[in-house]
C-alpha cells in the first residue's frame, strides 16, 4: 500500500513543527483547555477559601458594610475554642455522626447481605428499601415530626404497644434525653438504603469462584464470611462510611425541620450553629473562623481516613 | 338666551372636565407603577390584598404581594434588606427591625412625607408608634406607619369554664370561682386544674404557651412573665447596663414561673410550639387556654369548634411587679432601595386614611389608629375588642436595636435550655444572657 501524503508529510516534518498549531505550542494548547477550569476552580473554591481565612482574622460583619473592618488576630479562634457551647455543639455532632454511621453500616450491610441472596421478589424489596433516600430531607423531617407526635404519632403508638408505655407520656423530639436519638433514627431510616446499595455493589463484585474454591476446601459459611466476604467488602464499607461521614458532618435541613436544634441546644449540630452565627447574628468574621476550624477538622480527618482506605484497597 | 348660556356653560364644563380627566389620566399613567408589598403569610395579609384593590382602582398602580411564612419571614426579609434587593417596595416588617433598618439606611425616613401629607403620629396608639415606627425609641424620627397592632393575650374555653361541675370542683379546691385569671399565679392554678382532665371523653390539658426554639417563639412567650415580675432590659438610668436588671431576683422568679407553667400545664410534646401549634392545640380542643398574638382572635371567633361564643379572651394577667404584655405587630415602611418610592408613599398615604383604617379593622386587620380603636362602638364591635384595647395599653417590646437578631438568639437558647430542656437554673440562664448581651453590645461598641 502506498504511503499517503499526510503520512509522508508528518514523517518529514521536523519535531518542533509537529508540536505547533498556528504558532501555538502543545503546552500553550494544553493551557487553553485547562485554563477555564482552573479559573472557575480559583473563582469558586480557592478564592472564597482564602477570603474566608482572611475574614476569620477580622471583626467584619456583612450587615454593617460601613463599619471599619479591624484586624483582630486570633481573637475569633480563641473565642470559639473557649466557648463551652461550641464544644456542646461539637459533642452533639460527634454523637450524631458516630451513631448514624454505626447504625447505617450495620443495618445497611445486613440488608445488602440478605438482598444479595437469590429469592423471589428481591428486586421489588430493593426498590422499596431505597425509597426513603429519594425523598427530600425537608419532607422527611416534616413527616417524622408527625410520626413523633405524642398524641397522634404512629411511632409513639408502636413503641407504646410494644413496651406497654403510654404513647403520650414521652416526646421523642421534645425531651433532652430522646431528641438526639430521634434524629439518629430518622437519618438512619433515610440513608441506610444508600449504604445498602454500596454494600450490594461490593457483594456482587466478589467472584463466585472464590466461594466455590472455599467450598472445595470445606470452609464453613462462617469462615467464608470472615475470610472472604468481610475483607473484600471492607473498601466498600469504608467508602460508605466516608460518604455518610462527610454528608452527616454538614447535616442541616433534616435536623432543623425535626427539632430546630432543640430542645435547648441538644441537637444543635455545628452546621446549624454556624448558620446562626453567620446568617442570623451576622458575625461574619467570627463565623469565618468557625468555618475554618470545621474545614481543617474535616480535611484532616478525611485525609487520614482516605490514606487508611487506600491501604485497605492495596491489600 | 338662558338655554344658550346653559349649553355654553355645560360645554365649557365638559371641556374642562375632559381636560382634567385627561390630565389626571396622563398623570396617573405617567406614574403608574408595579408595587410589591412584602409581609408575612397569614390571614391579615390576605385581608390586605382585598383592601388594596381599592388602592389600585384609585391610584392606577398595580399591587403585587410577596408573603413569606412566619418561620422564614425574618430570614428572608432581612436577607433582602441586607443584600440591597429590590424585591419589596413596601415592607411590613417586625417591630424589632426598625433600629437596624433605620441605622443601615434600609427604610426611608418618613418625617418630611408625614409633615407634607398631614399624617400625624398622634393619631395612632402611642405604644404602636414607639414600637413600630420610631428610631431611636422615644424620638420623633419615623421610619414606618403603624400598620398592624398586635399583642400577646390569652384565649380560653368559656364553655368549659362555665360548666357547673367544674365550677364547683374548682371552688372547692382553690376557694375562688373558676374565672378569667387576674394574676399569673391564678393562671397556673387554672392550667393545673385542667391538666390531664377528661372532658367529653377526651383528655385535655391546661395551656398552650410559646416554647419554640428556632425563631423567636419562646422569647415572645417568656417575656410575658418576665416583665410582670420586674425584668427590665437595661438600667433605666444607664443604657446597656444589664446586670441586676435582666437577671434581677424578680426575673429569676419569672423564669422559674414560666418553667413551672411549662412543666405543669402544657400538652405532651409542646416543646417547640409557636403561633400555629398553639392555634392547632386550641382549635382541636386539647387545651383550656392558649397564649397567642391577638391576630388569631378573629379566626377563633369564626371557628366551628371553638368559635361562636365558646371562647373568651383576656389580657396577660398581672405579676408581682405589674401587668404587661409582649408587643407584636408591625409598621409599614418604604424600602430605601425601591425604584418606586413615590408610588409606595402614595400607598402609605392611602393606608393612613381613617376610612381605610376602619375598613382594615372591619375585615379582620388590626388598626392602630386612635379614632378607630377609641370610638365608642369599638369595644363592642367584636367579642375580643375590649381585650385588644386592654392589652394594647400594657405592651412592652423586645430590643429594637440594630443587633436585635444577635440579642434574640442567645435569649432563645438560654431560655429554651432552661425552660424546655431543664438544664441549669433560672439564675444561671439569666446570668448567661447578661454575659451574651454584654458581648453583643461590646462588639457594637456600645459598652
Give the key terms:
heterodimer, A: 315 residues, mainly alpha, 14 helices, B: 447 residues, alpha/beta, five-stranded mixed beta sheet, 12 strands, 13% strand, globular
Describe what this molecule looks like in 3D.
The complex is a heterodimer of chains A (315) and B (447). With 315 residues, chain A is mainly α. Chain A is 71% helix and 0% strand. Chain A is built from 14 helices and no strands. Chain A has helices at 5-12, 15-18, 26-55, 75-81, 84-116, 122-130, 137-147, 154-163, 179-205, 208-216, 221-249, 253-258, 270-279, 284-314. In chain A, helix 5 runs parallel beside helix 9. Chain A is flat. Chain B is an alpha/beta fold. Chain B is 48% helix and 13% strand. Chain B is built from 19 helices and 12 strands. Chain B has helices at residues 2-31, 43-59, 70-82, 98-103, 111-117, 126-133, 158-161, 164-174, 184-194, 217-226, 249-265, 275-283, 297-301, 341-351, 354-362, 370-373, 385-392, 404-419, 426-443; strands at residues 34-40, 62-68, 90-94, 145-148, 152-157, 197-199, 202-208, 287-293, 311-315, 325-326, 330-334, 395-396. In chain B, helix 2 (43-59) links the parallel strand 1 (34-40) and strand 2. Chain B is globular, with a radius of gyration of 25 Å. The model of chain B is unreliable at 1-30 (pLDDT under 50). The chains are: A mainly alpha (315), B alpha/beta (447). At the A-B interface, loops of A face helix 3 and helix 18 of B.
